[in-house]
UniProtKB/TrEMBL annotation, chain A:
One of its GO terms (molecular function) is ATP binding. Belongs to the ABC transporter superfamily. It comes from Nonomuraea africana. Keywords: Amino-acid transport, ATP-binding, Nucleotide-binding, Transport. The keyword DNA damage does not apply. SMART domains: AAA. PANTHER family: ABC TRANSPORTER ATP-BINDING PROTEIN, HIGH-AFFINITY BRANCHED-CHAIN AMINO ACID TRANSPORT ATP-BINDING PROTEIN LIVF. This is Branched-chain amino acid transport system ATP-binding protein. Coiled coil: none annotated. CDD domains: ABC_TM1139_LivF_branched. PROSITE patterns: ABC_TRANSPORTER_1, ABC_TRANSPORTER_2. Residues 4-229 form the ABC transporter domain.
From TrEMBL, chain B:
It is found in: Cell membrane. The keyword Transmembrane helix applies. It comes from Nonomuraea africana. This is Branched-chain amino acid transport system permease protein. Pfam families: BPD_transp_2.
UniProtKB/TrEMBL annotation, chain C:
Keywords: ATP-binding, Nucleotide-binding, Transport. InterPro entries: AAA+_ATPase, ABC_AA/LPS_Transport, ABC_transporter-like_ATP-bd, BCA_ABC_TP_C, P-loop_NTPase. This is Branched-chain amino acid transport system ATP-binding protein. Gene3D superfamilies: P-loop containing nucleotide triphosphate hydrolases (3.40.50.300). SUPFAM superfamilies: P-loop containing nucleoside triphosphate hydrolases. Residues 1-232 form the ABC transporter domain. GO terms for molecular function: ATP binding. The keyword ATP-binding applies. It holds the Pfam family BCA_ABC_TP_C. It comes from Nonomuraea africana. PROSITE patterns: ABC_TRANSPORTER_2.
UniProtKB/TrEMBL annotation, chain D:
Keywords: Cell membrane, Membrane, Transmembrane, Transmembrane helix. It is a multi-pass membrane protein. The chain crosses the membrane at residues 20-43, 55-82, 102-124, 131-149, 181-201, 231-252, 264-293, 300-322. It comes from the Bacteria. It is found in: Cell membrane. Pfam families: BPD_transp_2 (PF02653). This is Branched-chain amino acid transport system permease protein. The keyword DNA-binding does not apply. It comes from Nonomuraea africana. Coiled coil: none annotated.
Length: 233, 288, 234, 336, 360
């Protein structure tokens, strides 16, 4: 069952044509990794899906075309987003950040969030801007996990997290992935290996490979070609 | 003693007026980070709207209500038609509102002439009530009551509804708020309308105190509103209230006890002192 | 709230020290204290033997203290080159010279060019910093910090958000900076491989205190560190 | 939020470029008093007529003031609501010293005041930044306005202003027939101001000013003290504004209280944005156009009595549809 | 110069800005006066008057720009402005360029005797104050307070009261000067009540007047002292509120005060009740016509033609004093009842003659 189908997605930013017709499909459930070198447009793809970047092309979510909808309508169809730079509201407290993220009409999983990140519970009254980098990342994840989602778009969640937290986050995402479809952008390949079922690789503004994640990461030639790395560890 | 009572109560009346003048500005500045010069335009328009309706119907109350509703609608229109295009770029927003202030003031002068227009208020407002031997004009009580009501209502609006949060977050990072599934635009329009309505209320009441409305009443009140908002602290509604009381009382006492006419200098001095000692204002957040 | 408690750390000239610790342990706060963005409630900070505890930010930078930021902090409306040139100019002095025009033949420009080369974004020199991708900005951040040939270099998660491809490059740059310039480097790093590979010593922080500070091998073996920080390795 | 970083997103980094056009235009402008040519509608008389020369003198002076304002606002990111104070300081110092001590002393005093006043006030105001800075400058300007209008020491003439003691002026500055000399003086001021600001922006501190506009905190971490640079920009800009105030007084024949009003500084803001803030020539064009319109609109139109109605509306339209200002019309949009 | 058969006259006044209303009156009055003085021919001494009207927006910079433009175009006669600030900057231009300037309604005493080329068509503050004095007769040994706004207009009134009632009249004069942007006048009213003066002279302009009068009434100032103030334009008659009938008004001009030939002509030309500054415009036109009749286009002959000239203006008989160009004119005492002004008494020009300020 296809959850999300992207066809010929184009995004222009300033003068550069960043996405030049990206097409891929995401299966329902599980984690699909969106991979590629720095600056190929992974973040831009996610932002395009949400309508945060001006886009052209077709985006079908759950059978409905959403490419003309404003961002908040897309989100209300059950799309959660964890942005690359955390983008927590620095002037608001942790609790206010979470309250703001509550989508009306659904359940709000404070229990899950506080269980995953007890730190957030302790720091409810602290202004998000004064929290450490990693704490902010937790908050950004929590904001998305708070609601019932159909799809979760997660951009580099492990960035700036201490190793044991990376493990925790991985566990959390794995748990969530049983209920929700996750699109994951991640540089940490061991995390990808552990979580992802499918993978899509972007290069030069296009999707150049799609398929089984294990197959991609298990093939040193492909990884070198697409991701520029010999697989470590 | 009766002099002190007189000065204190009229000082509070003055404070109430300053607070009302500043409240809309404070709300919009605090929530949306827009230094809204057009607030001055609404202060003027509110006064003129009240005058027009009062003149036509003979009812000041009706004039007041119409002014508030009319200006709220106009502010909403201004937000949707003009300001909305400029979110994310604060300086152009300030500039836009500067342009509106200049244009609207000139328009009012062009249409209604530069002479002040007399605003008829109910007789009881201009009578006095003696308290401890001090004859207090009744309209000062009206000001104080309205200011308290506005303060309570706005505090409840900010604390009890999500709008406060949405807007504070939206100012910081508008796209991210929409990415949480929230229609930021509606919230912004609402707040702007409230700001416009508050300005109209203050403008009409200023007209009632002065007994006249004049084309540049907005521009001169605006400076006071700025000063009150800054002394009170950026983004603090409560701060504006505290600052208004401080300024109102201080001014009144200075004008009576101090050197002749020290009232305006003392406000400027107070502002300078606050900026130097506590730049974020009395109750302002350290920096947002 | 007390964020750091009795942290004492001495770093020798030319040494690379990696600061590790779970999120919120106080690593960035430590950097903010060292650079002067925050003031300690108690204690002293000595730079090359001189007390700089109360010196303002810019003065410490003048004395050769440079840093990069965990959350990218650049001049978005200047070009990449101008960003670095500004940093180069800052350490060369004479920035207040109103009569000195910025010319095309400027030693600071050459230095800036070399720094961009070093971090590998020389090809983006004429783009606005705002238009770089995240990884690009991280590299620019490092370039800004090293161009002044600082005596002490503080790097807050220099590789955060970089693709695996670029990490070894940046690691190499950091090592080269130390080797060629003799710069003392303190870095915060969550990537174990990078930290272990670079550091002469590793300092582990936890709840605002310094848990351990020793060679990588010994720190990695420390049981307390294991439980506090590494958890089950992935 | 921080005003200066926000602004950065709308303002492109300008790269002042020299070209042959500038000297050519300057020569042409200097030759205008010899041109017995009239542009109908636009000007109400030939270029050589005193009325037109006087208007153009005012345009030059205001353009110079606008340039100094843009140095602060457009290039350093300092939003001041009190810039008029320094223009007023120049005007009043000139008028007062002229009456008391003569022309040479007036120039001397104006230069001194132009240096000391902004250094002192800038040192205080710059302790805060963003909106607080804007308000601090506003507060001092208000204090200045109160001083001028209330005139406690009976030196400023209050709201009546202070006409120049013209008998103490050199003859070539007095009388309508000498309008060309005043025009050349104003043009000279404009050229000097534009050149000084352009030079400053291309200098080392000039780069730092723009960096401060973008990200002040980071500048400090690079080892540069933002306060010193901001004070430098503030003093330079205000000094040049004081100088312009002196020429303004000489052109207008006296000092007047309107300059101390906060709407004067708002007018400067409008000029700068009208032209295009943070762009070469932007403030210059804006200053010329705004001053021209505010003087001529009343005369040109009988329907519209209030020039500010047109100017305010024009300003709104511009902010919405041409955020780069008039200067962005002449230049293709290029990167950097 | 050339002996052409027309003379250009520039009327410079506010048609926009703060005092546009006054400017409108002045202009209308000027047109009426021109028709009256030239008997509808628009000619004086055989020369056609080419009159043009210009806005000064009560901004001195705009005014001097317009004046420079006109002078450059060969205008020999300028008149107008209702703003003292503008008048003070235009007057020196007249002397510098040797043209005739007949100031409009600006009341400042400083215009009198400012230079040989400047005349005035309205009253000056000194004359206002002298009229105020007439309400109490002798003030020797009495306590007089001046309640005014702390800027040029108010300060000038304070100075005049100190000179007329204090120095010359022997009263103790206490000023109460209020910052311009004051919203609540209670403290000042209280100060006045506490001081219990024998006479309170109020000099006020602007939009806070109504509030100020109301506060005086509320704090029972009228019970504590006798209050005198100037009667301004008709639009402000309502601002006095219920206190109006307790105030003694000194008046520069109101339509009900006179009914001479000039006043009738003014009312007829206007087709409505003339207002305070209509009279000044009318007078300015009379003086322009006189100047051209006497001097053609020779400015120094215009000046000698005006000096010492006695004529009938809407206010009554007026004389241009040769020494300092003060306009000696009658002044009025008035009261308001039901919003309509009534004449209480007329002061002859020599009862309110200002001291001579010889021109420099
Ligand atoms: N505002 C902009 N204007 C022009 N180009 C831009 C803009 N923002 C981003 N880009 C460019 O678009 C390209 C894609 O950026 P994007 O952030 O999507 O990359 P990414 O794959 O997420 O990279 P990373 O792994 O570094 O996060 C980059 O080359 C970047 O330089
Ligand atoms: N102004 C403040 N008020 C309250 N708590 C603060 C403030 N500033 C920092 N903290 C807290 O201090 C702790 C240390 O923060 P710091 O940024 O130094 O962590 P860190 O070690 O750099 O973590 P990370 O690896 O996640 O970046 C965090 O828990 C943070 O929330
Ligand atoms: Mg990315
Ligand atoms: Mg950190």
């Amino acid at each position: 069952m296809t959850m999300l189908a992207v066809r010929e997605l184009h995004v222009h930013l300033g003068e550069s044509h960043v996405l030049q017709g990206v097409s891929f499909e995401i299966r329902e459930g599980g984690v699909t990794a969106l991979l590629g070198r720095n600056g190929v447009g992974k973040t831009t793809t996610l932002r395009g899906l949400l309508g945060l970047a001006p886009r052209r092309g077709s985006i079908v979510l759950d059978g409905a075309e959403i490419s003309a909808l404003p961002t908040h309508e897309v989100v209300r169809r059950g799309v959660g987003y964890v942005p690359e730079n955390r983008e927590v509201f620095a002037g608001l407290t942790v609790q206010e950040n979470l309250r703001l993220a509550e989508r009306p009409g659904g359940r709000h999983h404070y229990d899950l969030v506080y269980e995953l990140f007890p730190r957030l519970k302790e720091r409810r009254a602290q202004r998000a801007g004064t929290m450490s980098g990693g704490e902010q990342q937790m908050l950004a994840l929590a904001r998305a996990l708070l609601n019932d989602n159909r799809v979760l778009l997660v951009d580099e969640p492990s960035q700036g997290l201490a190793p044991h937290l990376v493990a925790d986050v991985a566990d959390a995402l794995a748990r969530v992935a049983e209920l929700v479809t996750i699109v994951l952008v991640e540089q940490n390949l061991s995390l990808v290996r552990r979580l992802a079922r499918d993978a899509v690789v972007l290069d030069q503004g296009r999707a150049v490979w799609a398929g089984d994640a294990g197959e991609l990461l298990g093939d040193p030639g492909r990884t070198r070609d697409y991701l520029g790395v010999g697989v470590a560890r | 003693m009766s002099t002190f009572v007189l000065l204190t109560i009229t000082g509070l009346g003055l404070a109430a007026l300053y607070f009302l003048v500043a409240s809309g500005l404070s709300l919009i500045y605090g929530l949306m980070d827009v230094l809204n010069f057009a607030h001055g335009a609404f202060l003027t328009l509110g006064g003129y709207a009240a005058w027009l309706v009062t003149d036509a119907t003979g009812s000041f109350t009706l004039g007041l209500v119409c002014a508030v509703i009319g200006c709220a609608a106009l502010a909403a229109l201004m937000e949707t038609a003009l300001l909305r295009r400029l979110y994310g770029s604060h300086v152009p927003q300030v500039l836009l509102t500067v342009g509106l202030l200049l244009a609207v003031t000139a328009l009012v002068r062009q249409v209604f002439g530069s002479d002040a227009r007399q605003l008829a208020t109910p007789a009881w407002m201009n009578e006095v009530t003696e308290i401890l031997g001090a004859p207090i004009p009744n309209n000062r009580f009206l000001l104080i009551v309205v200011a308290v009501v506005v303060y309570l209502a706005m505090s409840a609006f900010l604390a009890r509804t999500r709008y406060g949060l949405i807007i504070r977050a939206g100012v910081e990072n508008r796209p991210m708020v929409t990415a949480l599934g929230i229609d930021v635009r509606r919230a912004f329009t609402l707040v702007f309308a409230i700001g416009g309505g508050l300005a109209a209320l203050a403008g009409a009441l200023t007209g009632a105190i002065n007994n006249v409305v004049a084309p540049d009443q907005g521009t001169s009140l605006l400076i006071f509103a700025f000063i009150v908002v800054i002394i009170g602290g950026l983004g603090s509604f409560k701060g504006s209230a505290v600052a208004a009381v401080l300024v109102g009382l201080l001014q009144q006492y200075a004008n009576f006890y101090g050197l002749v006419g020290a009232g305006d200098l003392i406000v400027v001095l107070l502002l300078a002192a606050v900026l130097l000692i506590r730049p974020q204002g009395l109750l302002g957040r350290a920096s947002a | 709230m007390r964020i750091l408690r009795e942290v004492s750390l001495q770093v020798r000239r030319g040494e690379i020290v990696a600061v590790l610790g779970p999120n919120g342990a106080g690593k960035t706060t430590l950097f903010n204290l060292l650079t002067g963005l925050r003031r300690p409630t108690e204690g002293a900070i000595l730079l090359e033997g001189r007390d700089v505890t109360r010196a303002p930010v810019w003065q410490r930078a003048r004395k050769g203290l440079a840093r990069s930021f965990q959350i990218t902090s650049l001049f978005p409306s200047l070009t990449v080159m101008e960003n670095v040139r500004l940093a180069a100019q800052a350490h060369r002095g004479g920035s207040l010279a109103l009569w000195r025009r910025v010319t095309r033949h400027d030693p600071a420009l050459d230095e800036a060019g070399r720094a961009l080369d070093l971090v590998g974004i020389a090809d983006r020199a004429d783009d606005l910093a705002a238009d770089l991708s995240h990884g690009g900005k991280r590299k620019l951040e490092v370039a800004l910090a090293i161009v002044g040939r600082p005596v002490v270099l503080l790097l807050d998660e220099p590789t955060a958000g970089m693709s695996a491809e670029d990490v070894p490059e940046v690691t190499e740059v950091i090592r080269k900076v130390r080797d060629t310039l003799g710069t003392t480097i303190v870095l915060v790093e969550h990537r174990m491989d990078v930290a272990v590979g670079l550091a002469d010593r590793m300092a582990v922080m936890h709840h605002g205190t310094l848990l351990a500070c020793d060679t990588p091998e010994r720190v990695m073996a420390d049981a307390e560190v294991q439980s506090a920080y590494l958890g089950e390795a992935l | 939020m921080n005003l200066s970083t926000l602004q950065a997103r709308v303002l492109p980094a300008a790269e002042p470029r020299a070209s042959w056009a500038t000297p050519a235009l300057l020569v042409l402008a200097a030759a205008l008093p010899y041109l017995n040519v009239q542009i109908p509608v636009l000007f109400d008389g030939a270029f050589s007529s005193p009325g037109v020369l006087h208007l153009m003198s005012l345009m030059c002076v205001m353009a110079a003031v606008a340039i100094t304002y843009d140095l602060l606002f457009g290039f350093t990111g300092l939003l001041s609501f009190g810039h008029g104070l320094y223009v007023a300081a120049g005007m009043y110092t000139t008028a007062v010293a002229l009456a008391g001590q003569g022309f040479a002393a007036a120039i001397g005093w104006t230069l001194a005041v132009g240096l000391v006043l902004p250094l002192a006030l800038g040192a205080i105001c710059l302790r805060v930044s963003g909106i607080a800075f804007a308000m601090a400058t506003l507060a001092f300007a208000q204090a200045g306005a109160i001083f001028v209008v209330r005139d406690p020491f009976r030196v400023t003439g209050g709201e009546l202003g202070l006409a120049l003691a013209y008998e103490r002026l050199p003859e070539w500055l007095v009388g309508v027939v000498n309008a060309p000399y005043r025009y050349w003086m104003a043009l000279g001021l404009l050229a000097l101001t534009a050149a000084a600001v352009r030079w400053a922006l291309a200098s080392r501190p000039g780069r730092v000013w723009r960096a401060i506009r973008d990200n002040e905190g980071r500048v400090a971490v690079l080892g540069l003290r933002p306060y010193a640079f901001k004070l430098m920009a503030f003093t330079l800009s205000s000094f040049l504004a004081t100088l312009a105030g002196m020429v303004y007084a000489l052109v207008a024949g006296g000092a007047h209280a309107e300059v101390t009003d906060s709407t004067f500084t708002l007018g400067l803001l409008v000029m700068v944005v009208l032209g295009g803030s943070g762009r070469p020539y932007g403030a210059l064009i804006g200053g010329l156009v705004y001053t021209y319109l505010s003087h001529r609109l009343g005369e040109l139109s009988t329907v519209i009595g209030e020039p500010l109605l047109v100017l305010g509306t024009l300003f709104v339209v511009l902010v919405l549809f041409l955020p780069g200002g008039l200067a962005s019309l002449t230049r293709k949009k290029g990167k950097a | 110069a050339g002996g052409g058969d027309s003379v250009k006259v520039g009327v410079l006044t506010s048609t926009s800005g703060l005092v546009a209303g006054y400017g409108k009156q002045f202009t209308e009055g000027f047109k009426a006066g021109l028709a009256y003085a030239t008997k509808g021919t628009n000619k004086a001494g055989g020369k056609t008057l080419e009159v043009t009207y210009h806005d000064d927006a009560s901004d001195p910079a705009k005014a001097t720009a317009a004046a420079t433009d006109l002078i450059g175009k060969g205008y020999k006669v300028l008149t107008g402005t209702v703003s003292s600030g503008v008048a003070m900057q235009v007057a020196p231009l007249a002397a510098q360029n040797k043209i005739l300037y007949i100031n409009g309604a600006a009341a400042t005493d400083a215009i009198t005797g400012i230079n040989d080329y400047t005349f005035r068509s309205g009253r000056q503050t000194w004359q206002d104050v002298r009229t105020a004095e007439s309400f109490v007769g002798g003030v020797r040994g009495k306590k007089v307070m001046v309640f005014a706004q702390d800027y040029a207009f108010g300060q000038a009134n304070v100075a005049a009261v100190q000179a007329v009632l204090g120095k010359a009249g022997g009263a103790t004069v206490t000023p109460v000067l209020v910052p311009l942007k004051t919203t609540d006048f209670t403290p000042f009213a209280r100060q006045i009540v506490d001081a219990k003066p024998d006479l309170l002279f109020v000099a006020w302009a602007g939009e806070t007047a109504a509030n100020m009068w109301q506060t005086l009434a509320q704090q029972k100032v009228f019970e504590a002292t006798r209050v005198v103030t100037g009667l301004a334009d008709r639009a402000t008659f309502g601002t006095f509120g219920p206190a109006a009938d307790k105030i003694n008004f000194l008046s520069h001009y109101f339509a009900e005060a006179t009914s001479n030939e000039a006043a009738k002509a003014l009312a007829k030309e206007l087709g409505s009740t003339p207002d305070i500054f209509h009279s000044d415009g009318f007078t300015a036109a009379q003086m322009v016509v006189r100047a051209v009749e006497q001097g053609g286009d020779d400015v120094s002959r215009m000046i000698t033609g005006l000096e010492g000239w006695a004529f009938t203006q809407p206010k009554g008989e007026a004389t241009v004093r040769a020494e300092d160009h003060a306009l000696l004119q009658p002044m009025f005492q008035a009261k308001l009842s039901g919003g309509v002004p009534q004449l209480v008494g007329t002061l002859t020009p020599d009862q309110v003659t200002p001291p001579v300020t010889p021109t420099k």
